[in-house]
Amino acid sequence: MNNITEITDFFAPELDVYARLTEAQLLNKEFPEKGLFIAESPKVIERALGAGYEPVSCLMEKRHIEGEGKRILEKMKGVPVFCAEFDVLTQLTGFKLTRGMLCAMRRKPLQRVEEICRGKRRIVILDKVMNPTNVGAIIRSAAALGMDAVLLTQGCSDPLYRRAARVSMGTVFQIEWTFLPDDSIEKIKGLGFKTVAMALKDNSLCVDDPRLTNADKLAVIMGTEGDGLSDRTIADCDYTVKIPMYHGVDSLNVAAASAVAFYQLGNRNNFCE
């Protein structure tokens, strides 16, 4: 059974982790073993539980206890559950997007890059992609379109930030990811990957070039919103790739570009015939 406590005051201390702690405070860089994240919506929570993340507490709209949330609560027996009426919870920023359920969960230790890349054929490297919505959307595309893992440089938004995990529809728990210890791509080359810089350069390959689609191991590198990849990163890569566009359009949002690139360059045997 779950210990269910009804909250009637938005400023109750039980709501601090959901309402008043920042993403940085939840992350807890000083003591990463104590780090938390908030999973939003039943689908995201279920996928996190399925991936083995440990729930600390749950917050939900009261009516969902015997409704949509009942099945999830059965998977979290013994975990404290806080519930409240809708008018209390709507004081939480963005609560209407959560479908009435949030869960505080413990973070897992990050895997090493070598562990993540072992046995992989197609990986994504995100270089300073700072917008959590873009990070979540890219991870969702990577999981759906045949990529095996995602690596992020230190300047990227954390995939477990609320918005990133929600936009990913919980696929952050279905595809492996970790942070690179530095921004160098030499480590990735050393693991046998051909590196592909997605950049708006005229002297580049088309995204469907056979040298890319036939490569045994490929790392697709995508840069920050607006500025894209640095000239140094582009120069260090084996290939530069440009997506052909029409009607004078000069670029795509990085999340949209990722879907095009991953569909073309992902593991083809992962797709339905």
Can you tell me about this structure?
The radius of gyration is 20 Å and the shape is elongated. By secondary structure, the protein is an alpha/beta fold. The strands form 2 sheets. Strands 8-7-6-11-9-12-10 form a 7-stranded parallel β-sheet. It has a 5-stranded mixed β-sheet with strand order 1-4-3-5-2. The protein contains 12 helices and 12 strands. It starts with a strand and ends in an 8-residue tail after the last helix. Helix 7 runs parallel beside helix 12. The mean pLDDT is 90. 28% of the residues lie in helices and 21% in strands.
Helix content: 25-40%
Mean pLDDT: 90
Number of helices: 12
Q: Biggest β-sheet, characterized? A: 7 strands, parallel
First and last CA, distance? 46 Å
Spans of at least 5 consecutive residues whose pLDDT stays below 50 are none
Radius of gyration: 20 Å
Characterize the quaternary organization of these chains: single chain
Tally the beta strands: 12
Strand order of the largest sheet: 8-7-6-11-9-12-10
Shape: elongated
Percent in strands: 15-25%
